[in-house]
Design brief:
It comes from Slackia equolifaciens. This protein is of the alpha/beta class and about 725 residues long. About 30% of the residues lie in helices and about 25% in strands. The chain has 5 domains: about 120 residues, 3-Layer(aba) Sandwich (GIY-YIG endonuclease); about 200 residues, 3-Layer(aba) Sandwich (Rossmann fold); about 180 residues, 3-Layer(aba) Sandwich (Rossmann fold); about 55 residues, no CATH class; about 90 residues, Alpha-Beta Plaits (2-Layer Sandwich). The protein contains 20 helices and 29 strands. A 7-stranded parallel β-sheet has the order 10-11-9-12-13-8-14, sandwiched between helices. The longest helix has 23 residues. The chain is globular. The structure holds adenosine-5'-diphosphate (ADP) and zinc ion (2 copies). The site of adenosine-5'-diphosphate has 16 residues, from helix 7.
Length: about 725
C-alpha cells in the first residue's frame, strides 16, 4: 500500500504538520505536488501531497517529534513526516485527486525548507508554489469534486493604456542593443556569470554598479547565455519597478518567451502566466518577489535587481527573504544567482568576502561615461537658525526655479520612513535617545511618552529641548500632501509647471504608478514629488535636479539598518539626476549634516560609510555578524499577550542556557514600538545568534510547546529586515 504525506490547506497562524493518508489502490494520478481532497476530522479539506512512499510493514517505535521531523526533511528516510505511520492506526484514504502536480520533488523540498527556515506554517508555504497563490475553492460537480477555475482574465483595458515608451522609443532601445561595446566592468561581470554557469555549482555574482552603469545589460546577456544552454531564467525586480519601462527592455530582447508576474494581477492572470511557464512556452520570468516560485523547468539563472530592497522580504507568513531562498535554490539546482545593486546590502557585501562561491564585480561608472551628479548637503538646522521656517531651503528653492524656468524636470523626495515618530529639536537637531540602548526613543501619542522599544525604558516627552532649552521641540511631521501644498504655494505664478505627487495614496489603484510617470514624462517643466518609491527604476533624461526634503528621518528610527537605508536612499535617488545629455545635481536637506551615512553618500564613498557602520554592527551584535530572530506575540487582550511573551521568554532563556550555550542571546520580552496596532496588543522577543546558526532549531520547539492562552498569536520573524 502507498501512503501520502499531505499538507492541509487550512488557514492557520500556528505551526502545522503534514498528515498521512492511504492512497487507494485504484487511485490514479496521486503524485507529489497534486492537490487532493481529504477528510480531516469531520470536514473535507484540500491538501497537497509532499511525499509519497510504500507503507512499511513494521511499525515505528515512537512517533517522531515535530522538531526532529522538521529539521530532518533533507534526509530521505525522514521524508515522510507522518503524524503516525503506525499500522495499528487505520489511515484514512485520499478521497480524490484534484489537480495535476503543481510542484515536483524539488518543490516539495523547497516548501519544507521555507517552512523550517522561517518557522512558518507549511500551508502558507505551499501557496507560494500553487498557480493562484492562495487557497482554492472546491466545488461539487455531480459526484465529482473539483477545484474552482480561477476568475476570468481581466479585461484588456488596463494593459492597453499607452506605454511610457512609444514604439519609436522601443525601436531605438532594440537597435541600441548591439550598437555599443561593453564596458570593462560589464565584460568582467558577464565572464564571471558564464563561469558560474559552466561550473553549475550554485555560484553567485554580485554586480555592484552605480545607477546607469549598465547592470540591466549584464542581466540581458546573462539571460541570453542561460537560454542558449537550454535553461530558464527568473528576474526579480522590486514591485515598484515593474513598470512597462522595465518590462519592455526584457520583452524587446526576448519577445514572446517573457512572462510577467506581479501582485496586482488577478487570480486568472496569474494562473495564465503560471501555465505558460509550466508548459515551457515562457522561459524568462520577470516579476516581483513571489515570481521566484514559478514552475520553471531547468532553472539556470536567478537575477535579483536592487537586491538590497526591503520588498524582497515578505512581511507576513512565510516571512521569507527572496534573496536568501534564491541562494538556497541555486545551490540545490546547480544554477547561478546574480545580485545587482548600486548599493548592495551589507550582508551581501560581507558574504562575498567569506564565501568562495560568491563573487563581486564592480561597475564603477555610468555606461555613457557621464559623471555621477554632484551632491550638496544643506544643513537645515542652520537654515532654521537664520530665520527660515520653510521645509524648502533657500538653495533648493533657487535651484528648483532655475531648473523649471529652463523647462527641465525635478524630482523631490520626502523620506517617509520614521516620519513623526520621534521628537526633534528644530533649533539644535537634538533627538532624545535611550540611555542604555543608544537608539532614538519612539514618540507615543498615548500619554505623551517616549519609549525605547528595545528595553522598554519610558519617560514623559520633555516640553523643551533638554540640550538647548528651545521650545521648538516637535514631532517632526509632514506628509507628502503638506509638502505638495507648500510646493504649490512656492510655484505660484508658474502655472505651466506640472506637479505630480506619487505616494501610497496616489498609487493605490492598479497602474496608477505608470499613469503618473507618463504624466511626468510629457515634455515641459514638471516636478515629481514622492516618497521613497520614486528612488527606484525611474529613468528620465530631462531630470536635472533631485532634492531630498529630509534625508535623516530614517536615521532616527530605532532600527539597526537605519544608517544603511539612509545611505542607500541618498545614493539611489542621486542616481536619478543627470542621466541624459543635461548635467544634473542633487540637494540633500538634513538636520544631521555631519552624519556619516549622509556625508558618505554625498561623496559616493561607500568605504567611508562601512568603516563607520561595521564596527557598530559588530559591537551591538547585528547582521552581518549575528543573525536575528524576532518572536512576535499579538492578541486582543493585553494581559494575555504579556503572559505569553513572558512564558516564551522563559523558554527561550532555558533553551539558550541548556542547548546552545553562550554565543546566543535573548534581549527579553518587551512591548513593540507600536504597542497597539489595529486593536491588537503586541510584544516581541529579540534573539541574537551566530551568523551560521540554525535559528529554527531553537525557536520552533519553543513556539510549539507554549501552553498559555491559545487565542494569542505567536510567530517568528527570522532575519527581520528591520526592527
Ligand atoms: P543600470 O541597470 O545599471 O541602471 P542600464 O543597464 O539601465 O544601467 O544602462 C543605462 C543606460 O546605458 C541604458 O540606456 C543602456 O542602454 C546604456 N548602456 C548599457 N551598457 C552600455 C554600454 N556598454 N555602452 C553604452 N551604453 C550602454
Ligand atoms: Zn533602551
Ligand atoms: Zn535643542
Amino acid at each position: 500500500m502507498k501512503i501520502a504525506s499531505v499538507i492541509l490547506d487550512i488557514q492557520t497562524q500556528s505551526l502545522d504538520t503534514p498528515y498521512t493518508y492511504a492512497v487507494p489502490d485504484d487511485m490514479d494520478g496521486a503524485q507529489v505536488g497534486c492537490a487532493v481532497l481529504v477528510e480531516f476530522g469531520r470536514r473535507r479539506a484540500v491538501g497537497y501531497i509532499i511525499a509519497i512512499a510504500e507503507a512499511q510493514e513494521e511499525s515505528h517505535d515512537a512517533p517522531v517529534s515535530p522538531a526532529v521531523r522538521s529539521v530532518a526533511f533533507h534526509d530521505e528516510s525522514e521524508a515522510l513526516p507522518a503524524t503516525r505511520t503506525d499500522r495499528r492506526v487505520e489511515l484514512k484514504p485520499l478521497l480524490s485527486v484534484l489537480s495535476a502536480p503543481y510542484f515536483d520533488e524539488f518543490g516539495a523540498r523547497l516548501i519544507q525548507f521555507i517552512a523550517h527556515e522561517y518557522i512558518a506554517p507549511l500551508s502558507s508555504c505551499v501557496h507560494l508554489l500553487t498557480p493562484v497563490g492562495r487557497a482554492p475553492k472546491v466545488v461539487k460537480r455531480g459526484d465529482e469534486w473539483e477545484l474552482q477555475k480561477p476568475a476570468k482574465r481581466r479585461k484588456k483595458k488596463d494593459a492597453e493604456a499607452a506605454p511610457i515608451l512609444d514604439d519609436a522609443d522601443i525601436a531605438r532601445t532594440a537597435q541600441q542593443r548591439e550598437a555599443f561595446d561593453l564596458t570593462e566592468g560589464q565584460m568582467q561581470a558577464i565572464q564571471a556569470i558564464e563561469g558560474a554557469m559552466a561550473h553549475a555549482a550554485g555560484g553567485c555574482v554580485v554586480v555592484d554598479g552605480v545607477t546607469g552603469s549598465g547592470k540591466t545589460e549584464v542581466y540581458l546577456r546573462a539571460i541570453r547565455a542561460a537560454l542558449e544552454r537550454g535553461m530558464g531564467a527568473i528576474v526579480l525586480v522590486p514591485e515598484i519597478a515593474l513598470t512597462p519601462q522595465t518590462v519592455s527592455r526584457f520583452e524587446s530582447r526576448f519577445g514572446d518567451t517573457v512572462a510577467v508576474m506581479h501582485s496586482r494581477m488577478t487570480g486568472g492572470e496569474r494562473y495564465d502566466q503560471w501555465q505558460d511557464v509550466a508548459s515551457g512556452r515562457k522561459r524568462v520570468v520577470v516579476g516581483a518577489r513571489s515570481a521566484l516560485f514559478c514552475p520553471m523547468e531547468r532553472l539556470g539563472l536567478v537575477v535579483i535587481d536592487e537586491e538590497h530592497e526591503s520588498t524582497y522580504k515578505q512581511e507576513s507568513a512565510p516571512r521569507y527573504h527572496a534573496r536568501d531562498v534564491a541562494a538556497w535554490m541555486v545551490c540545490e539546482l546547480g544554477a547561478t544567482l546574480v545580485l545587482g545593486s548600486a548599493t548592495p546590502s551589507i550582508e551581501t557585501l560581507c558574504r562575498t568576502t567569506y564565501d568562495p562561491s560568491w563573487h563581486r564585480v564592480s561597475l564603477p561608472g555610468r555606461a555613457n561615461g557621464k559623471p555621477m551628479p554632484p551632491v550638496r548637503i544643506i544643513d537645515m538646522a542652520r537654515e532654521f537658525g537664520s530665520g527660515s521656517r520653510s521645509m524648502f531651503s533657500r538653495t533648493l528653492q533657487e535651484e528648483l526655479f532655475a531648473a523649471l524656468d529652463a523647462g527641465h524636470k525635478a524630482v523631490l523626495m520626502l523620506n517617509q520612513r520614521g516620519f513623526a515618530n520621534f521628537l526633534l529639536c528644530r533649533e539644535c537637531g537634538y533627538v532624545p535617545e535611550c540611555p542604555t540602548c543608544s537608539v532614538s526613543l519612539t514618540y507615543h501619542e498615548r500619554g505623551n511618552m517616549l519609549v525605547c522599544h528595545h528595553c522598554g525604558h519610558r519617560v514623559p516627552a520633555p516640553p523643551v529641548c533638554p540640550a538647548c532649552g528651545s521650545p521648538y521641540l516637535k514631532k517632526f511631521g509632514a506628509g507628502t500632501q503638506r509638502v505638495e501644498a507648500e510646493l504649490l504655494k512656492l510655484l505660484e505664478g508658474r502655472e505651466q509647471v506640472r506637479v505630480i505627487r506619487m505616494d501610497s495614496d496616489t498609487t493605490s489603484s492598479r497602474d496608477a504608478h505608470e499613469r503618473l510617470l507618463r504624466e511626468f514624462a510629457k515634455p515641459g517643466a514638471a516636478v515629481l514629488l514622492g516618497t521613497q518609491m520614486i528612488a527606484k527604476g525611474l529613468d528620465f533624461d530631462e531630470v536635472v535636479l533631485v532634492g531630498v526634503i529630509n534625508a535623516d528621518t530614517q536615521l532616527r528610527l530605532p532600527d539597526f539598518r537605519s544608517a544603511e537605508r539612509t545611505f542607500d536612499l541618498v545614493e539611489q535617488v542621486a542616481g536619478r539626476a543627470g542621466r541624459g545629455e543635461l548635467d544634473g545635481q542633487v540637494l540633500v536637506q538634513t538636520y544631521m549634516a555631519d552624519s556619516v551615512a549622509i556625508q558618505a553618500a554625498a561623496t559616493y564613498n561607500r568605504k567611508r560609510f562601512l568603516s563607520d557602520e561595521l564596527p557598530k554592527r559588530r559591537m551591538l551584535g547585528y547582521p552581518p555578524y549575528m543573525r536575528l530572530a524576532n518572536i512576535l506575540v499579538w492578541g486582543e487582550n493585553a494581559d494575555e499577550v504579556r503572559d505569553v511573551a513572558l512564558e516564551l521568554d522563559a523558554r527561550v532563556n532555558e533553551a539558550i542556557r541548556d542547548i546552545v550555550g553562550t554565543d546566543w542571546m535573548s534581549l527579553g520580552a518587551a512591548p513593540c514600538a507600536i504597542e497597539r496596532l489595529r486593536s491588537q496588543y503586541r510584544w516581541h522577543i529579540l534573539i541574537k545568534a551566530p551568523r551560521d546558526a540554525d535559528i529554527a532549531r531553537l525557536v520552533e520547539p519553543v513556539i510549539r510547546k507554549r501552553r498559555t492562552h491559545k487565542r494569542v498569536n505567536v510567530a517568528c520573524d527570522v532575519d527581520p529586515f528591520s526592527l
